[in-house]
From TrEMBL, chains A, B:
PANTHER family: KETIMINE REDUCTASE MU-CRYSTALLIN. This is Ornithine cyclodeaminase. It comes from the Bacteria. InterPro entries: NAD(P)-bd_dom_sf (IPR036291), ODC_Mu_crystall (IPR003462), ODC_N (IPR023401). The lineage of its organism: Bacteria, Pseudomonadati, Pseudomonadota, Alphaproteobacteria, Rhodobacterales. It comes from Lutimaribacter marinistellae.
Amino acid sequence: MTAQQPSDKALVPFVSVDHMMQLIHRIGLEDMLRGLGEYIEQDFRRWELFDKTPRIASHSAEGVIELMPTSDGEVYGFKYVNGHPKNTKEGLQTVTAFGLLADVSTGYPVLLSEMTMLTALRTAATSAMVAKHLAPKGADTMAMIGNGAQSEFQTLAMKAILGLKSVRLYDTDPAATRKCAANLAGHGIDVVACATPEEAIEGAQILTTCTADKQFATILTDNMVGSGVHINAIGGDCPGKTELAAGILQRSDIFVEFPPQTRIEGEIQQLAEDHPVTELWQVISGTAPGRTSNRQITLFDSVGFAIEDFSALRYVHDRLADTGLYLALDMLADPDDPRDLFGMLQRATPGAAA
Amino acid sequence: MTAQQPSDKALVPFVSVDHMMQLIHRIGLEDMLRGLGEYIEQDFRRWELFDKTPRIASHSAEGVIELMPTSDGEVYGFKYVNGHPKNTKEGLQTVTAFGLLADVSTGYPVLLSEMTMLTALRTAATSAMVAKHLAPKGADTMAMIGNGAQSEFQTLAMKAILGLKSVRLYDTDPAATRKCAANLAGHGIDVVACATPEEAIEGAQILTTCTADKQFATILTDNMVGSGVHINAIGGDCPGKTELAAGILQRSDIFVEFPPQTRIEGEIQQLAEDHPVTELWQVISGTAPGRTSNRQITLFDSVGFAIEDFSALRYVHDRLADTGLYLALDMLADPDDPRDLFGMLQRATPGAAA
């Protein structure tokens, strides 16, 4: 061991994309979605404990780069995430992400992880955990409008957490629907490819919209949505990007993660600033009503919040230790004497005695 | 090559602490300090281009964790940094840091780097670059009050950028002074260990204070500071942490990085909110005067700003390509079809055909 060999505290476990995929297969995708849903639900129950701040966004003509920090007082976490709709044309992902957990008492990072894959799982697990609280009893059929990268995860999370039996797929691009249907084959769920959105919502109690246009779009029109459904609106998640006709919002009871963020980024940016919404953590902790009748339209105006990423990182951190599915990164300078950073550098001179 | 093998775009170069130390030795510490000073100076000249925001801090009883983002419109960068004064007692660093650069047009990260070591260099390079603009002509002697982790870097940056010939060391702990003097031996600078701060400032035209107490302290009292000096105040860098008597501030012309941040974190938190200060970028770009007389006291109230970290990461990124001193991290999920994240996961099933 040479003088500059880092100590354990200076090494940060890093979960690569490949590690994450292996971890998902090791645990089992549906089990992991259920586990993530439980961690997210736990953190919604202790919502008031958390340091909450809207994400810190850096906008450009091409897209946005955001930092989403939060802390429960013992653990600190943040996610880096970009959103660049034009990336797809260049063969790149619209959204990529990574995240970090740190120990509040020392400030030392304890986990660095890819989060492109993990965000897909946590978004789906959040949707399904929320649907478990808000969808009509016995809901077993979902319309999945938008059959992109999130669609299979949404479907399997609804199966794992809510007992979904059937999914009805629609996308403006039939190739996306074919891809989604092929991916879901053999996963124990009935898959129906539909030619129109109207056909997709037939008989569905849960309507999930997840499209990617960065502009005001109307994926569901007012006359398409009848009573007694739960709408899970995923795609409207930044200023100028919405998916639902305003008329639907007016007829719905609206549930959100963190109002200051959702009012800027969610479907409700179409409504007055004081339009009533219910915070999900209150429903989940039992201090506000969720669904109160079978005729009601409930709407989860999902934009994604830092606490869900925190929960997901916490889950990965808890499941990682025994797996070996990480790389220990020499990320923190850790001199024997903390005041002697310079001495550490000098001892690392090539050829210097260890 | 298997189906899940990441493409080049999905791989992010990571510079570990060991890589950074090797890079410093490869370039040479003083050359690197000069190079960093030039990059920082360039970015101060184009200051108005940058997206500037005060750091986003998460405070706890034990310390603080901060994110410091910025962007010049083409490149985005942020630094994660903690400050935990009690860490030293547990054999940990008070401050650790890492940073990231990303391409604004795609949102994809292009560099992840340790920044504990790099922050020490950029802080020193910033001090010396600023002293080059503000210190009295011919300044060649510095008092270095506080002989901790930053002291050697400050001294050698002043030598490399300003031509410092002599440093006079003082610390309340004589062991720190002995460590600093030993580390500086053989670096071509005259080192004088002093028993009192009064002795240390004798004949010095530059007074650098860099102590670590998280409380209002008075490292320099009013009667210790005569006319015609440049004060480089490093240690006062968070709310409640200052080093200089208010009387010195009243007699000085004060120069700062980013006033909204310095008024909260710097020495000037002791002054009225509208006390006049000069922004350094204006001095460096020639739109505001710096030192105007030999009798003047100039004070750089340094707290560290995101743009300096951005410059330092930019320098490392530019110097890295040929060195091989990095590890390519599989950090971004990169499916062949961006809409088919699920297919990528399925193809990574252990035992699946590639």
